[in-house]
Amino acid sequence: IPGVPDPSVPPSGVSCSGCGAELQCADGGAPGFVPAEKYRSLVSEGTAGLRGAVCQRCWALAHHGRALRLQLPPDEHRRVVSAALRRPPRHGRGPLLLYVLDVLELPDPVLPQVPALLGPGVPASGVLVVGNKVDLLPADAPGHLRRLRMSVAEACARAGLAGAALVDIRLVSAKTGFGIEGLVSRLQRSWKCAGDVYLLGATNSGKSTLFNTLLRSDYCKSRAPDIVDRATVSPWPGTTLNLLKFPIINPTCDRIFRRQERLKEEATKTEDELSSEEKNYLNHLKKQGYLVGEVGRTFQRQKASPVVDFDPDMLSYSIDEDPQQSPKKREEREEFTLNEVKDARWCFDTPGIVKEDCVLNLLTEKEVKLVLPTVAIVPRTFILKPGTALFLAALGRIDYLQGEKSAWFSVVASNLLPVHITTLSNADTIYEKHAGHELLKVPMGGEERMKEFPPLVPQDITLKGIGTTEAVADIKLSSAGWVAVTAHAEEELLLRAYTPKGTTVVVREPPLLPYISSVRGSRIAGTAAYRTKKPPSLVENLKTTGSS
């Protein structure tokens, strides 16, 4: 239950350790809200009481996966990010932008805004683009990561990011750790030519998850992970409301050497040599994604000793933007002194930039959880004749209007979203009868919900097949998922794709996973469907044994 506000109480000046918003109890709809009664009890303990506290929104996200509605328009997100990037350069160098892109969302709708965010007043050291969530996509054929990287590079070029402005492209999974050690090594090589680092990206790109993963890696100062409260990770759009940060470790020659030694040693281990705890965690990750990597730490925090030696990497961390000398030090939560941080470089998480024309903006928290894939996607392939319609929940529909032969339609979307095949003549009736109900699942809430939900609007698409093993295009149904279409060579298909009014259908040519229709089992007799097939998971930075 949302708590009671008290408009007479001024804001605290202390940031929420989940989202970075200033804690306050005056306005229940604004960022950083804490119910008045709870707020007073925290304030009664002095500033120390509020340190480490989270706002009601972060608490609800962390404990219930619920997001309280917030009044924060997209322009406000952009303003916060833009203002941060326009700060005077520190260390005589501009910031390095770490742009996090969800590979499932290619072409990324927010990427073209990055050059404008930088603007003429921002002396940036360049943009390093991180293609995230690669663990969710099955390998459709050998070389699929190379093809994915090329797709990201093409999206960057179209958005006006190329040449010296584009530092590198990395493919990772912030969730399973795949590619993270390589990203850390690449970031450490940028130390000399960049100042602070800013994580940018659209909402739900996995930016906060990457922030949390880097916080537990060799990229972060050795003691900071024990002090910094990790960003609230949640699928609800726009959860990081202000700037959270952690201090970056200085990659001295000695540290780089020690790190390389650790990585070399780990690469000689096989899965059998891991401890039972490590094995269990690895098996858990393998169930989650197709690509898995271990993220280790070379520089562990030393145990506290009565003698305090000055070491900049043993410093704790304050979430405040400007470190203050605290007159009364609390042992369990020290603050940086100004002297200690004057040369520190910081890694900032920023608010997610809201995607406009996106179906997720129309959905409730419960619906978003069903639509956003969080585990390895199992593709579902159907062979359809002209005169057939395919529904992806009640969020997208593709009609096969004209063509000489059957074609293959491979659905790449959350495993929790139902796919329903019907005849064209029956399709409208199915939607009217079942949208809002169990058969189509999302949206949920029956006729009442569908009254307020925008109607599906059509867009005609013509495709020419290139052969029965390679898809010609993906039809991306906003952020609900996509359908890869595979047809006989030279075969012309007339299709009609529908998404809710105000959202966008994208025809992606070439497709992201061109050979996806081959990731299937045998045809299920009497139906249009094939049995599904889940390819095995791959673990990087471990020595492979005979078994997969």
TrEMBL record:
Residue ranges constituting the G domain according to the UniProt record: 197-247
Domain NOA1/YqeH-like C-terminal per the UniProt entry, residue ranges: 409-509
Stored InterPro entries: GTP-bd, Mito_transl_resp_regulator, NOA1/YqeH-like_C, P-loop_NTPase
Coiled coil: 253-280
Keyword Coiled coil: yes
One Pfam family linked to the record: MMR_HSR1
One example GO MF annotation: GTP binding
Keywords, ordered alphabetically: Coiled coil
Highest classification ranks of the organism: Eukaryota, Metazoa, Chordata, Craniata, Vertebrata
Designated name of the protein: NOA1 protein
